[in-house]
Design goal:
Strand order of the largest sheet: 1-2-3
Distance between the termini: 17 Å
Radius of gyration: 16 Å
Helix content: 25-40%
Number of helices: 1
Oligomer: single chain
Shape: elongated
Number of strands: 3
Length: about 70
């Protein structure tokens, strides 16, 4: 039996602000390799939260308790 899986393309880049005293921020884009749907994230925490929710929901749909 083949286990379901998810494949994503993750892009990460740094954005600087117009204020030279402000720290630059990391931004993230996650693209689903199958559906080509793309989502943007303003922080690493947002990205992790999305992945946890997405993978947990997928595991619940398949009955897999390992996720």
């Amino acid at each position: 039996m083949t286990k379901p899986y998810h494949a994503f393309l993750l892009r990460c880049w740094q954005e600087s602000t117009s204020n030279p005293n402000a720290a630059s921020a990391w931004r993230f884009s996650l693209e689903d390799a199958h559906s080509r749907q793309r989502r943007g994230f303003a922080s690493l925490e947002e990205l992790i939260t999305f992945l946890e929710a997405n993978l947990t929901a997928a595991a619940n749909e398949t009955g897999d308790k390992t996720a």
